[in-house]
Amino acid sequence: MTSDLTKIYDHRTIEKELYEWWEKEGFFAPEKSKELGITNEKSERYCITIPLPNITGQLHSGHALVLSLEDLMTRYERMRQKETLYIPGTDHAGIATQNVVVRELLKQGINHKDLGREKFVEKVWEWKHKYHARITEQSKSMGISCDWSREYFTLDPSLSRAVREAFYRLYHKGLIYRGEYMVNWCPGRCVTAISDLETEAIDEQGHLWYIKYPIITKAWKGPQHPWASGKWAQGATDFIVVATTRPETLLGDSAVATVKSHPKYAKFIGKQAVIPAVGRSVPIIADQFVDPEFGTGALKITPAHDPNDFEIGKKHNLEFINIFNENAQILPGFVEAYSGLDRFECRKAILKDLETEGLITDIEPYVHAEPHCQRCHATIEPRVSIQWFVKTKPLAEPAMEKVRNGETVIIPERERRRFFQWMENIHDWCISRQLWWGHRIPVWYCDECCEEICPEPDVETVSTCPKCKGSSVHQDEDVLDTWFSSGLWPYSTLGWPNTDHPDYKRFYPTDTRETGYDILFFWVARELMMGIELTGKTPYHTVYLHGMIRDEKGRKISKSMENIDQYDPLIIIKDFGADSLRYVMISNSVPGLDTNYDPKNIDVAHKYCNKIWQASRYVLTNITSDEIVPKIDEIELDKLKFPDKWILSRLNSLIRDVQSYMDNYDYLRMTREIKSFFWSEFCDWYIEMSKIFLYDESYSDKHVQKAILLHVLETFYKLMHPVMPFITEKLWQTLPDNLKTTPTIMYAPWPIAQESFIDPTIEDSFLLMADFVREVRRVKHDFGIPLKTLVPLQIETETHRELFELCKNELVKIAFIDEDKFIIDKKIVPPPKSARIVLRGIPAFVPLAGMIDIEKEKTRINTSLEKAKKESIKIEKKLQSQFSERAPKELVDKERQNLEELKFKIEQLEDQLKIL
RNA sequence: GGGCCCGUGGUCUAGCUCGGUAUGACGUCCGCUUGACGUGCGGAAGGUCGUGCGUUCAAAUCGCGCCGGGCCCA
């Protein structure tokens, strides 16, 4: 085996090439595992669907985490010999995409409204074709093993068909309805209704204005002078004062409400108040909703522009007066001067006029939460309009049941509580959007008899009314909320509604939904609700929620940040490789918790890659091309040396631990333990000790160590492959052919711990030996003796004699001991001018005649003596307290033993001081 | 208003469910090495675990209060 590995690890030369090869060979498709004879119909299978990115999107740090985790899960399951499918795809992202294209067109001087619906949608498709490649190429650079032959887009014909099917079924079951309700209207860039979830409340520093409404009396029948003349309310004697944060909405007031118990205003109930500016007379009503403590205890009621007033309006059968157009500008017909004004301009104008009329009695600063559009940040305008809704309560209950009974598990568990809290208080879901880009609502209206027609899902267009046979019908203008189609994702990508589709039969329900906790409600909740309703099954058994990626100080990563490049996954991949990025993402990820991404971790990861590369080079350069190294199960067990047994024990312990970490989604520990094994045990100790054998001309059983080196490497590659797919594949491919049973490491069987190799005694003995090596090195260091200068060593032990005989060779070589002067005896007379070491109750001496500086040794001994004394006092105190009576016996015994060992050490060191 | 998360050496971080000597990384300092390692190895310094009280033989860990940072829902 010749190694063609470059001297330095260079991700650039391997990642792209390998990904192309994987794709070309079709390794990502589940069919491949069958073809290779790894799986069959009876095999377990694993399926995960990608959290579909927006078609307009660019790969950002959030995606990097998503893709790292999901590909980790996928590759792991694939290596566990399951038939594995990871489905990629993209989302048409209604509002987001429409906004982007509208803006782009505007740059070209084109108004999308002039273009018309059809032409505009064509433009968006052009845009889609152009940008689709960008996000998929970027995703591929992460190394994800998606089956690209099964890539979907939410507007694909098959997925649109699924959307119509879902709509049809829910509609005819009465779970989708159309009606006039108050919705969140975004009058900013989006100009559409949006769902509750798409709004966010922001505290606004506003004001509470106290406004006087005159009351009709016998003496005053209404305003006699024009608005803003200063004499509008002249002659009025009775007033009711309301407090409001939105004075401009008074144009749409249709009542004033107070409570029956109001000391001042109760007597006005039943009378008529006159709305300023418009001069309309409205009733003064009583309603429990009014909080007598708030403001003046009287409330202006604007049923068409406030959610609470909407309810009151319905209850009292009030008039719903819409005062705004779709951009929240004042409609004509109220007050000429305000017509066409933006709501905030109107507010200013109306306040000025109210002032003129002397109708403002007070102004207080007031902080209140105002809903904003999550996407364009415009202040939401509550608006009454005809929209489509999903009735969610009947859907929520079964979804909650699946989570309650564990058919779907949410990780981390605490997110369950959030899930239930939201589901229990769920509101109906507004699914219609006043956009052009998306799935058009599959409902037609007859122009003659007004019949509402929701045809069979195979019908793509309706031309005659089934009721009156009229031929003048038109389709609903609105499109569906994007989340309606993404809510079907786990099965619309598997051929649903065709339940005989082989993919559906084989892979549904899927296994995992991996996504950020921020979209638990947007997506997961709806997938569960719709999935259970439409397929009768929960769409996946595990919901794994990860946290957000933030910068190293915990701030949100945004495009406007300084040094944004260092957080840009595309740049990171280019400079350090996807393996490094994936490693940082995975090794820092704890379920449900935010991760602070520190750019310097990427260096650490990159160095790790290089270390892996270098260790591999060492092993492979020590094996010649014509050499046949036996496999691990072919070597003679009696030829195993102490370090061999140790590393095999450690390796199998590691495999066992990794398995448990994987089972518990503890990726942080998994990566940490593997790294620590690889670097601090395999490289630092085993490889170093292997040199003793490999460089020894007279040693004839080198194949044993070579076999173990290769075995450990191969196992390590496999354990790390789900995390770092590229470097592990590259290096695995360079291993001798007899070790490989599959064409790619992707299908190599996941390691299983061989308990017979695990030997805690060997592991412990090794630690003791390593401690001795360290101590001898330290002695040399303290006396300025070069590391490689051979020194004598005398160990006084009877109980551990066997162990030291066992590792004598290695100890002598690594610690640079003079082999002829290495003595193990049950009694050692402390040699003069020597350094003394005490470890675990075993004293040892390093005679250093001619090299030792007595004063230095005194200082050295004193330092460790002090430390030992301090420690022993602490333990003594503890043992004298109630600890020894009340604590468990094992603990007390352990402390006693510790104390004894320390006392022995102190004795030894004091003795050393005496004889110096 | 209700709920959730977080606060650990200079920096970031593990541990908290299940109480018993606080993990790792970066950085700093000292030394060694360069025939796998654009480096690597060895060693050192550095923490009253936000704060107060309580429970306990024993608290980073459990309970209550407070302070600070963030998030979600209303």
Describe the overall structure.
With 916 residues, this protein is α/β, with parallel strands linked by helices. Among the domains are: 192-382, Alpha-Beta Complex (Isoleucyl-tRNA Synthetase, domain 2); 596-758, Isoleucyl-tRNA Synthetase, Domain 1, CATH 1.10.730; 775-915, no CATH class. Helices cover 42% and strands 17% of the residues. The protein has 27 helices and 29 strands. The strands form ten sheets. A four-stranded antiparallel sheet has the order 6-5-14-16. Strands 10-11-9-12 form a four-stranded mixed sheet, with helices on one face. α10 (393-404) crosses α15 (520-535) and α18 (600-621) packs parallel to α20 (667-694). The chain is elongated. The chain starts with 14 loop residues before the first helix and ends with a helix. The mean pLDDT is 87. It binds one RNA strand of 74 nucleotides through α11, α18, α20, α23 and α25.
